[in-house]
Specification:
98 residues; mainly alpha; DNA polymerase, domain 1; 5 helices; globular; SDH_sf; cytoplasm; SDH; chaperone
Amino acid sequence: MDYVMVDTQDDFPHQSDPLRRARLRWRARRGLLENDLIFDRFFSRYEHELSDADVAALTRLLELSDNELMDLLLARTEPEGDLATPDVIRLLGVLRSV
């Protein structure tokens, strides 16, 4: 079963709604500078190309603490358990490459 984020406020996909993009960017602001730098580069390159699956995977990652997220972004750890979905792993690879 595919995990898809559903927004009941409107029917616009993430890429076509500037308000949704701004909210996601704001949510990605973190307490650790290293995380902020990675997300800033990521959004600069890929913000308009994100699919609903990408947004759902990013949302899952943003639920982590700053230190857990940094460890994943810097490949100190790998996603485990229900976080280790194909979409999260793929998005994490993109985040690590920016």
